[in-house]
Write a structure and sequence with these properties.
The protein has helices at 3-6, 13-24, 33-45, 53-65. It is mostly helical and 81 residues long. It has two domains: 1-29, no CATH class; 31-81, no CATH class. It is globular.
Length: 81
């Protein structure tokens, strides 16, 4: 899940504080050139991801960093993982 998705409005101040506390204990992955290339590759291979851009970014990050995808709802067709 992306930070943007977690902090998307509408969100109360209390919810925002809770999310920020949760994120403080996690390793955040910022997109780099490798993730950007994988992102574009996935978008070109799997057209359905064009309406799920955040999910495509998550999948690309997992693929490049060799991390598991926990929620597989939008990722079942992706074979790179």
């Amino acid at each position: 899940m992306t930070r943007k998705e977690l902090l998307h409005l509408p969100i109360s101040d209390a919810e925002k504080a809770c999310v920020l506390r949760l994120l403080a204990g996690l390793r955040l992955i910022n997109p780099d050139n490798q993730i950007a290339a994988a992102y574009l590759d996935l978008l070109s291979r799997y057209g359905y991801l064009r309406v799920h851009l955040a999910d495509a970014l998550i999948a690309a990050s997992a693929w490049v960093k060799n991390l598991p995808l926990v929620n597989l709802r939008h990722f079942q067709q992706i074979r790179e993982n």
